[in-house]
Amino acid sequence: MRFVSFTSILAAGFVAVAGPALAADHTLSINTALTTTDPLYKGLESFRDAVAERSGGAVEIKLFPNSQLGPDEDVLEQARAGAPVAVIVDGGRLAVFQNELGILGAPYLASGYDGIRNVVTSDLFEEWVGKLREASGHQILSFNWWQGERHVVTDKPVATPADLSGSRMRTPGAPVWTETVKAMGATPTPMPYAEVYSALQQNVIDSVEVQLPALWGSKLHEVAPHVTKTGHISLITGMVTSAAWFDSLPADVQTMLREEALAAGDEASRGTEAALAQIEADLEAAGATITEIDVTPFRDATAGVYDVLGYGDLRETVQSIAAQ
Hints:
Elements: H1 6-11, E1 26-31, H2 39-54, E2 59-64, H3 72-80, E3 85-90, H4 91-94, H5 112-120, H6 123-136, E4 138-154, E5 168-171, H7 175-183, E6 187-190, H8 196-201, E7 207-211, H9 212-218, E8 226-242, H10 243-247, H11 251-285, E9 289-292, H12 296-302, H13 305-308, H14 312-322
Helix pairs in contact: 2-11, 5-14
């Protein structure tokens, strides 16, 4: 079965799927590195509840925070093999299967939620959804789960890329992340997010780049109290599952899942927007130092990442969609 386009989803009315539309119960287990206090997790709970209601309980969503099912890469492989699992994951990790998706994690591509939402609900993005299915057997349910802008978190003040020289900075292992960290002056050190707190505590790494909700939820400020607001990546993530599992469902159930994933992603992202100011206040009250800087040196330092990764031509197209 071919992928269902967002245009079709939004145009079509949904027929209730309870009763004979499903021959058996279906369960989808969703893994996320986030804690239960993260605004995005609230969106996942809304998705779980909405799917249960619209399917009459025939489709069950189970949530696994704190990477309980394993690292994102492992869950992606499970999904690729046809397991009924999903993961909240960034485009950088999917770029190994479909290269264009990596640009979603490129530095200073867009700021805030609205612009990047334009990109991940566009016809161009839906083409990428289809290419990913063909390349790896993954199905994107929606990709509008915005986690905020990522900042630099260190044990000492930072104002320019030169201040990060020699700093071992944790980042996901995808090329778009490692090249960005390298361009910012640090030494990229890939590791699972669940290991970051202890790695900072034991001086295995010196710094991390992370969005404020995840920083607060993981209490990283306890071991790295300096937060420099570089905003170098606007972290947009998606709910990605198995295409084989997705294709085993009736068409109306597929439509329902993508509709509800999109709606819950919007709810989660708006919740993130609304929570940022309070999270900053909470971090400062807990002893963290949050510093606003002129990000121009970081923007200039990372501009070449697009050409290094082969996204130079695509950058203008994507940014024009973001600006619509």
